[in-house]
Amino acid sequence: MAWTWRFETADGTETSPAVEPEEFTTQGDAESWIGEVWKELLEGGAETVKLSDDNGTELYTMSLRSALDA
User: Fold this and answer.
1) Are 21 and 4 in contact (CB under 8 A)?
2) What distance in Å separates the CA atoms of residue 59 and residue 70, rounded to the nearest whole number?
3) pTM for the full model?
4) Which residues contact 47 (CB under 8 A, 6 or more apart)?
């Protein structure tokens, strides 16, 4: 199974990430990667990320801005 991130601006428009993601074969790998690069993504204009599996099922949405404020 493959896991992918969608990157969105504050208004929900899809945007290109400041750091290009790799191919993720596990959910844990995808989550570890976002944990390492979320600040760079936020600085590059992504406000929200969404994780989906290879069936297109969206697992969750995460605000990078709220992570910064935490």
Assistant:
1) yes
2) 22
3) 0.91
4) 8, 9, 10, 63, 64, 65
Cα(61)–Cα(11) distance, integer angstroms: 14
Q: What is the pLDDT of residue 70?
A: 66
Comparing C-alpha atoms, which of 38, 47, 36 is closest to residue 13? 47
> Could you state, in chain order, the average pLDDT of each consecutive group of 10 residues for the chain (70 residues)?
95 96 95 96 96 94 86
Q: Alpha carbon of 50 to those of 38, 58: distances in Å?
A: 12, 7
Residue tagged 């979320």 (tokens) = 38
3-state secondary structure of 24: strand
